[in-house]
Amino acid sequence: MDYAASFYFTGAEIALSLAGLILLLIVAWTGDRSARAVTIAAVVALFGAAFWAGHLLLGQSFALGGDAFGGLYRMDGFANFAKLLIYLATIAVLVVTPRFFDARGQYRGEYPILMLFNAVGMSMMVSAVDLMTLYIGLEMSSLASYVLASFLRNDTRSSEAGLKYFILGALASGIILYGMSLVYGFAGSTQYERIRIVFAADFPTGALFGVVFVLAGLAFKIAAVPFHMWTPDVYEGAPTPVTAFFASAPKVAAVAMLVRMALDPFGSQSDSWQQIVIFAALASIVVGALGAIGQNNLKRVLAYSSINNVGFILIGLATATPAGASATLVYLAIYVPMTIGSFAALLMLRSPAGEMLDTFDDIRGLSTRRPALAWCVLFLMFSLAGIPPLFGFWGKFVVFQAAVQADMVALAAIGIAASVIGAFYYLKFIKVMFFDEPEGQIEDSSPVSHWAVLAISTVLMSPLGYLLTPMLDNVADRAASSLFFAI
């Protein structure tokens, strides 16, 4: 075993772990007064990890990837693409976080540390090529997420969200662990490569049950129907910056983990799980769209929007082709700034007294009171709806194109038809902001950090985003091909 190469490949995770431990000691010595300094240090550490992931992703000498620690961990383009999105999303959330908690006097130094350890867990998830590594990364990420969801200890809604997330998350972890035990029992190994070889030669019914249990547990993590029930309640109850985090970085990690799991150890048996993924994709699109129509709380609307978008992402996975995997990565790269920007705008909606405004009633006539904010929200909502010429359209286009190329024309046609339903509640934002009479008061200004995140997200989702398509498609194709090369 080449430990030098192993440490080199896991440099980002090691650096983030050390940074988290050092910052934890600093917080223990200095208390909450160092919270902002710790946040800045955490952002710097994440930028370093993002740089390292980009170095491994774009470096020609790492094009073929490599295994670390005896085949427990794989460094390849697919994992590094996902890690880059995870780190950048976590940075964006940390940038817009402090003001929310400062207004309540509850910003603690442990918050950015939990985000760092969460990022480490997510990194392990997307690089895992062994069931044990996968489960350790999954639990590391999940345990930090449970605490983050209930971070506002004096808020009953936050405590309720944390408890619901913990109970249902523990159930999903149990399902995954049971499925892993079945897979191990029939394959005789926890390593993806060995499982794929054994199942290619013989795939008994018991192993099929194991695969179904594993995929069902992972479907909970990405909030795919029918395992989506926790999403609206947790998104509404958790602190808004935490909700922004849940809707972005962990979503990327869970989807990447699911794609690798489906295409690597279970890739030889794609016929056994494709129908399940197709059902989850179409059901998520429809349920996410219909569920959002009757909602008045903006965070619940965005929760159903995330369920809806997961459906489109799963269409790429359902193809079980390199083009589908590449389309999934492209969609994730577009989905992250759309989501982060939407929640950044939500964090800017405050009353003059400092209370958060999070219902449609609160944004009535927003265009007359804060026109710049209203126009940014318009761009982001139209982009989430996939309306051209905004960049969100490209994400839907590539997954439908991959489905057509895989001879799944019916799946693409149904997905396109179902996407029209979701346009209704996105258009509701525009109707309320631009055509309704103003109600109540809204804060006149917002911090520069919030505007920076919102402006970057809006520009990326504008037609200018299409300038990135050659580079994005090229990098996504390379990342997806590295996954299939390993297979």
List the helices and strands and how they pair.
Layout lengths: L2 H7 L1 H20 L4 H24 L7 E3 L4 E3 L1 H20 L1 H5 L7 H18 L3 H19 L6 H32 L4 H10 L3 H17 L9 H7 L2 H7 L2 H15 L6 H24 L4 H21 L3 H26 L18 H4 L1 H15 L6 H14 L3 H27 L12 H14 L7 H18 L1
Antiparallel strand pairs: 1-2
Helix pairs in contact: 2-3, 2-6, 3-4, 3-6, 4-6, 4-12, 4-13, 4-16, 4-22, 6-7, 6-13, 7-8, 8-9, 8-10, 8-11, 10-13, 11-12, 11-15, 12-16, 13-16, 14-15, 14-20, 15-16, 15-19, 15-20, 16-18, 16-19, 16-21, 16-22, 18-20, 18-21, 19-20
What would you say about this model in short?
This protein is mostly helical.
Account of the 3D structure:
GO terms for molecular function: oxidoreductase activity. It is an enzyme of class 7 (translocase). Keywords: Cell membrane, Membrane, NAD, Oxidoreductase, Quinone, Translocase, Transmembrane, Transmembrane helix, Transport, Ubiquinone. This protein is mostly helical and 487 residues long. Helix content is 75%, strand content 1%. It contains 22 helices and 2 strands. It has helices spanning 3-9, 11-30, 35-58, 77-96, 98-102, 110-127, 131-149, 156-187, 192-201, 205-221, 231-237, 240-246, 249-263, 270-293, 298-318, 322-347, 366-369, 371-385, 392-405, 409-435, 448-461, 469-486, and strands spanning 66-68, 73-75. It has a two-stranded antiparallel sheet. Helix 4 packs antiparallel against helix 6. The protein is globular and about 65 Å long. It starts with a helix and ends with a helix. The mean pLDDT is 87.
